Amino acid sequence: MNKRHLTSALALGAVSALALAGCASGNQAEGGSGGEDSKGTITLGFLPSWTDGLSTAYLLEDQLGKLGYDVEMQTLTEAGPLYAGLAQGDVDIYPSAWPELTHADYMKTYGDKIEDLGAYYDNAKLTIAVPSYVDITSIDQLKDNAARFDGKIYGIEPGAGLTKQTQETMLPGYGLDGDFELVTSSTAAMLTELDNAIAAQKDIAVTLWRPFWANDAYDVKDLEDPQGLMGEPEALHFLATSGFAERYPDAAELIAGITLDDEQYGSLEDLVVNQYGEGKEPEAVQAWLEQNPSAFPTQR
Fold it and tell me: What are the φ/ψ torsions at residue 85 (nearest 5 degrees)?
């Protein structure tokens, strides 16, 4: 067990959602309301417990600041209000969205008022995982072993796309909805259950995703998904409120050019979440930029 990882997750999971109304009222008019030398204010909305967005939010804060923008960080605890905030213009950018599958329903609802600025990572996926010592290898083996898991799969936030995919597609598709309950609460709570089970060498199944630091922090394995009911790999996108690229063309151009491979993304998340931790995210980004000088050759 890695206590540093767990402590970070618990601290992040405790962040309260802030009200969206009025949080970025100056962003929509003539370039925003920054200081005398600022090009305006850009608001980044993200879920701190979802560390892909946490990491890229602070990366964008650094890069947009270097372009001359003031950056306002807006934390929430559910994806739904974040998509609504984008559509309403209360949030300018969602720095790590899953619009192709995981958040497809949100895009159906709000997509006509959202701009896609591009994908930065192309191999994200949703998983059901168990500790490596568990002797099953596939989701379809869970049905005959429900008692070993107390009939529970531990999940994350109720409004997460991962929760919907697991509850509405995977469980009924594999005939597990009569034998298993998906226990939802928060990412931090799920990690606590996982941590405790591993410490006691107990069987447990959890919803996870890749990329996510917990896959490396804990000795877990993804269960095979022979029916593909957790979905195919998808890309992680930078989404913006409608009209963003027209108002902030240089910011949109910079964001559209960002791509991260597995090694670059992994090192960014590890530095932000684990090596530096809460409160030192800007320092973590600077360390990452020093390690990856070709990522933004004109912005260092």
Answer: -65, -40
Strand locations in 168-281 (E)? 181-183, 206-210, 220-222, 234-241
Contact 118, 156 (CB under 8 A): no
Q: Are residues 85 and 175 in the same domain?
A: no
- CA angle (291 as vertex; 290, 292 as ends), nearest 5: 90
Same domain? 73 vs 171: no
- Chain segment 187-203, per-residue pLDDT in tens: 999 999 999 999 999 99
State the CB neighbour count (10 A cutoff) for residue 290. 9
Report the CATH number at residue 32: 3.40.190.10
**Is the pTM of the predicted complex or chain greater than 0.70?**
yes
Helix, strand or coil, per DSSP, at residue 151: coil
Report the alpha-carbon distance of residue 250 to residue 69 in Å, rounded.
11
